[in-house]
């Protein structure tokens, strides 16, 4: 699915539903299946693996619908989908939940690493993705990118600590609610950057 330049406008609630729906369905499916073992083709799978197996095609479907309706997918959406297919697929194929639990680590390392490479080149790759949403001066973009790079790497480390030391229940709650809340809180606390480095709209005196 390639990123296109023209984006069609759709209902924001529909867009949010397509983006968050698979995560919610995974969470509900896991809660219902976590104490069950299901035998498929002579192999026993626990509830986590079964919920993961359902999550992958659902995410492919909703991402495809989003692409069809908007005519555009961000690089982050494409990268997330690819990593879900790879790591989720490995978990199901090898019947090993660890691969799917590693997926957020890989995603955040990928995003943080990409932003870091841009910073080493004196550029803000974040600006390329979000410039239309948040018009900022170059200094503001670089500062926000540095903070977001450190934030993504921190989330990657945190995910590793949680899935390696805590129960599957704890990790699922962290994945469903903790990571989403952390990203929301991060941007909410960057208000001073948006205030200090906002581009002033040009006005014509007449």
Automatic annotation (TrEMBL):
What is the protein's major site of localization? membrane
> Does the record bear Secreted in its keywords?
no
Q: What topology in the membrane does the UniProt record assign?
A: Multi-pass membrane protein
TM region(s), chain numbering: 12-33, 45-66, 78-94, 106-126, 147-165, 171-189
One Pfam family cited in the UniProt record for this chain: IspA
This protein's source sits in the domain of life called Bacteria
Localisation per UniProt entry: Cell inner membrane
Q: Which UniProt keywords apply?
A: Cell inner membrane, Cell membrane, Membrane, Transmembrane, Transmembrane helix
Function summary: Plays a role in cell envelope biogenesis, maintenance of cell envelope integrity and membrane homeostasis.
Family to which the UniProt record says this protein belongs: Belongs to the YciB family.
What is the designated name of this protein? Inner membrane-spanning protein YciB
Q: Which organism is it from?
A: Shimia sagamensis
Q: What is the lineage of its organism?
A: Bacteria, Pseudomonadati, Pseudomonadota, Alphaproteobacteria, Rhodobacterales
- What is the gene called? yciB
């Amino acid at each position: 699915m390639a990123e296109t330049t023209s984006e069609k406008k759709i209902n924001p609630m529909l867009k949010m539903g397509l983006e968050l729906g698979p995560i919610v369905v995974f969470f509900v499916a896991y809660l219902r299946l976590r104490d069950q073992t299901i035998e498929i083709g002579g192999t026993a799978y626990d509830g986590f693996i079964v919920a993961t197996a359902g999550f992958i095609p659902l995410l492919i479907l909703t991402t495809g619908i989003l692409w069809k309706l908007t005519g555009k997918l961000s690089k982050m959406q494409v990268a997330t989908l690819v990593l879900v297919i790879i790591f989720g697929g490995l978990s199901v194929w090898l019947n090993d939940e660890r691969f799917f639990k590693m997926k957020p680590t890989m995603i955040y390392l990928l995003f943080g690493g990409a932003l870091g490479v841009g910073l080493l080149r004196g550029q803000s790759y974040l600006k390329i993705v979000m410039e239309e949403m948040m018009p900022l001066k170059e200094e503001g973009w670089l500062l926000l990118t540095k903070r977001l790079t450190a934030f993504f790497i921190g989330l990657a480390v945190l995910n590793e600590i949680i899935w390696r030391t805590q129960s599957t229940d704890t990790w699922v709650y962290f994945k469903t609610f903790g990571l989403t809340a952390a990203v929301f809180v991060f941007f909410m606390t960057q208000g001073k950057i948006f205030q200090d480095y906002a581009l002033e709209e040009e006005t014509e005196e007449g």
